Amino acid sequence: MVFLSAQLWLRSRVTDRYWRVQEVLKHARHFRGRKNRCYRLAVRAVMRAFVKCTKARRLKKRNLRTLWINRITAASQEHGLKYPAFVSNLIKCQVELNRKVLADLAIYEPKTFKSLAALAKCLRKRLPPPPHDHNSERSQESFAGVCWV
Questions:
Q1: From the CB of residue 91, how many other CB atoms can be counted at a distance below 10 Å?
Q2: Which of 77, 96, 116, 134 is deepest in the core (most CB within 10 A)?
Q3: Segments of the chain assigned E as strands
Q4: 116 and 66 inside one domain
Q5: Structural domain contains residue 148
């Protein structure tokens, strides 16, 4: 068995303190004023920044969800549907796309979003789905020879 108590007793604690101070000051380098130089002020500022960072991670999720809902609402109103009716009819049609994907479709794929709105509108009015127009869009046969790597 190895007795480490003597080595631990003789070990200097100064180096540990130095590196602990440097770690705190590293996190405080971008702060303004004496908070980025004075350890006593930097410790408080870094702890406060860490607390705000933790709270901001929760707020970010909430803010993004609100943004997605606003985007979907605006896009669905362009097609004559309100947001709750649009989402509930998509769920009834077994279209399981989350709000993030729907918001991205509304921005970057407006034709796809228009077809989803038409699907939701048909279910709302109890109409059969609109016929697929093969002339205006490329059919699946044209992609038969393409190999996606």
A1: 12
A2: 116
A3: none
A4: yes
A5: no
For 122-137, what is each residue's pLDDT tens digit?
877 776 666 666 555 5
**Residue 26, SS3 per DSSP:** helix
| Residue whose tokens read 């228009």 | 114
b (16+ CB within 10 A) / e for 128-143? eeeeeeeeeeeeeeee
Tell whether 20 and 67 lie within a shared domain: no
What CATH number is given to the structural domain containing 103?
Answer: 1.10.1900.20
Domain containing residue 74: 61-126
Both tokens of 77, joined, read 């109103």
Tokens of 89: 């009819």
pLDDT of residue 136: 52
Q: Is residue 98 part of a domain?
A: yes
- 3 found inside a domain: no
Amino acid at 3: F
Residue 1 pLDDT: 56
Over residues 19-45, the pLDDT tens digits come to 999 999 999 999 999 999 999 999 999
Q: What is the C-alpha to C-alpha distance for residues 31 and 82, in angstroms, rounded to an integer?
A: 46
Sign of CA dihedral 130, 134, 140, 143: negative
